[in-house]
Amino acid sequence: MAEDLVLDTAIRDWVLIPLSVVMVLIGVLRYFVSKLMRSYQVPDAKIVKEGQVIVRARNLRSGANFIPPKAFRARRVYFSNEENGLLFVPKGQAQNAQAQMFSDPNMAMDMMKKNLSMIIPQTLTFAWVNFFFSGFVAAKIPFPLTQRFRSMLQNGIDLSTVDVSYVSSRSWYFLNLFGLRGLFSLILGEENAMDDTQRMMQMSGFGFDPTKSLSAEKDSLDIIQHEWALPKFEQRAEAVLRKLVS
Amino acid sequence: MAGGSEKKSSEDANDLQTFNAENLQSNMKVIYYSRTFLSIIGGVIAGILGFTGLTGFIFYFLIMAITSIGLIAKAKFSVHSYFDSWNRIILDGFFGGLMSFVLFWTFAYDIVHIF
Hints:
The structure holds two protein chains of two kinds. Chain A is an all-alpha fold. Chain A has one domain. Helices cover 67% and strands 2% of the residues of chain A. A two-stranded antiparallel ribbon of chain A has the order 1-2. In chain A, α1 runs antiparallel to α5. By secondary structure, chain B is an all-alpha fold. Chain B has one domain. Chain B has four helices and no strands. The longest helix of chain B has 29 residues. The radius of gyration of chain B is 17 Å and the shape is elongated. The interface between A and B is medium-sized, with 33 and 36 residues. Chain B: This is ER membrane protein complex subunit 6.
């Protein structure tokens, strides 16, 4: 390996540890703030109804092989009948629901609040790190990377001969950003890992859920081949009993 | 640790599998927590012991393998009564703990070796 730089102990005390501690505290703060700011949204009756229909269809799919063929077919027709089946949504109505979702002021406000609560602390912390902690080597990552990462990891350091393992505090910030997700999910209970992509998917799920998943359920229900399991139960029971006896 | 995993009936003579979705999910969470926790601890150990480069990543895979073995042992080797497939307990969340591992590895390595 190249020469081993000796780094000042003060960097350890005043950069690495405070940065990590600050990020953990900000994460905890954001968790509590989002809990306080969560406005309770009265669920729309129509959406709840459609959600329950989907759940019923899904149960039918998973339990399909336990009921006699006629019963299964009767239920299937009830769901996917062209005229008044529960899962059948005429095309015109589909578009409407989507547009309505997005122009609903409450929904938009909630989405914005969630996005902001995610973005603002990150931006502020990043600016803080850049302002105070730039221009020196902050840490050494224990594995080597290629030269192409140099500009990304060593942005404040203008010496080109320093090993790429010595990184600036900006990269320590990013490392913390990704690595503390696991820690947050442990100490804050479930559902509070900082998965912004997951949350955004959940938000947009409110708008798309009724229309697309209804037709998806209908298709998957149509696909199912019914194979009644009851005749085989006797053989199964025999096998189990045989195993018990022998 | 794998508490809360009630018996789910899985019929082995034919393809019918019935699972209690809630218990399955809670078992998945147990796996996730175990892996995250162990990858953090493993990161600290790797840093203190001074692993660098490839050795550290090999250590990470070793830790994940130990997690898998530990979980299988806790499930008393009858994986099918707690999970729906082998892949779940072995491969799920394998790379999820990588970032936490690297963070704590870097942290411990720096504190101990470049102090």
